[in-house]
Amino acid sequence: MDMLVRGKMVGNAETRDIRIKDxxxxxxxxxxxxxxxxGSRHSFIAPVLFDIQVNGWGGIDLQSPTLMVDDVWRxxxxxxxxxxGYWIPTLITGPLEVMERTCRVIVEARRSPAVRxxxxxIHVEGPFISPQDGARGAHAKDFVRKPNLHEFDRLxxxxxxxxxxxxxxxxxxxxxDFIRAVVAQGVVVAxxxxxxxxxxxxxxxxxxxxxxxxxxxxxxxxxxxHFNPLWxxxxxxxxxxxxxxxxxxxxxxVLKSFVRVKGPERTILTSDCVHIAGLKPGRYSLGGMAVExxxxxxxxxxxxxxxxxxSLMLLQGxxxxxxxxxxxLEQAVxxxxxxxxxxxxxxxxxxxxRAGEKAEFIVFDIKKDATNWHAIxxxxxxxxxxxxxxETAG
Length: 394
Fold this sequence. Notes:
The protein has 394 residues and is an alpha/beta fold. Helix content is 26%, strand content 27%. An 8-stranded parallel beta sheet has the order 5-8-9-10-11-12-13-14, with helices on both faces. Strands 3-2-1-4-18-19-20 form a 7-stranded mixed beta sheet. A 3-stranded antiparallel beta sheet has the order 15-16-17, with no helix packed on it.
């Protein structure tokens, strides 16, 4: 493979020509007269993205009791096609035996070096969340239960130690003890799908919780204007926060305000995409719950306005955040690369292309109109390989 790639590295105004041969960057120079094979003087070049909350995509459902190793392989490729070089499979609330089986399937898929490289761990989003309507979101109530270290250990054993973080409702009796025990195993604890008081949140943070799962969502529709779970989590500087930047889960002014409070060093952009993302609008099933994918891309529990995951791909979320918040494009990219890696304690390195190193970056354009910025993915290189399919991200 011999390719000339052209674009501006995010954070740098100068357009550069990057020559790639046999999967490695051979030179980086000022723009020349030769026509580029990929990109243009208006394109952007950035590290591949890291999505820490993926439930599925394109009909591949990580919650399916019949999930196969090949599904995880294909989903890894789907993520790569959309510029996501690293991702965290997310398991939502379900029967313990099904969740164990899913962990084992993911572990088996990770025996492939390429998949293991792409999947640095697993996220268990439940079952230790709130049973209350609203706070529970689209999780099935029948399988919600109190935090139980024995059950967690069963899941971690099935995952062969690959569980990287877990989402917990901190108002459960015994939640601080559970959090301390899990953190002692090197697992990050996130707060989410809860209706906790300020005192419960403070106790969870003292016990070691360091992240909020899709903050601003997984909440009751009606909450007290002052005494609610949002403000203590926003005010707590020890908590980083994940945000779904599809502008459906959080309207633009809300996302801007939340990011302004947390700052770029504690903001994580994620997709929370589910298996019906990439499919045609219509009615589907999600974790045994009836949901509807609207033409706008919004996914709701059928007959309600409650969101049930997203159809977002992460690059579009990055561009959305750069448009509607105070984040620069460079900072927004960091919130989908180095920031989540640091919060989760994952050893991944995100950097611009360098001569002599394997090619690993994305090339994209931003098409702007009066109401939106559209991310258009032009090409993806991962571990020196060109991902041989180009699609619009978003």
